[in-house]
Amino acid sequence: MTTRNIFTLLFCAAMLFSVDALAIDAQTPGAIPLESVPVRLKPATTTTQYNGTVAISAVIAANAQTPDGTTINYNASAVVMDGFFTSERFVGGSATFSGGAATISVNIPYAFFIGSSSATLNISFGVSSTVNPPNSGPITYSLAFGSSPPLPASGATTPVSFSGTF
Hints:
Layout: H1 3-18, E1 48-61, E2 71-81, E3 86-96, E4 101-114, E5 120-131, E6 139-147, E7 156-165
Parallel strand pairs: 1-7
Antiparallel strand pairs: 1-4, 2-3, 2-5, 5-6
């Protein structure tokens, strides 16, 4: 044991044995009596499990500086916030430009616990690609998309389509 640890142990022991917690009350000089503060608790929330799939299809057209064979990275998320819980699922991957466009199809399976029937499904989809044109430094293109459909029935597949051009 180091000298520092021994001094810390002795200090803590001295503090522990020098104060009797029961002796500190409203009669003790310097003591401040604390009032109890009621804490309002929310009632327990009943949850329902929603299972399903978000099926995203996207077509991203390439600009003149994006040659075929260029990789495009994507990330997708499905999020439900209902005032009680936040549930989220993420998926990412990559595709390749071919014929002047990249076609991306991705499924996000989910099992969300929902505490309110007014919850909304928030879907985000982002893509990015970096190209190196001649006589120039690297250029990164990116697009972001979003959709907020009503929460579908449990077991449903929610199709969402996005399109854009770099």
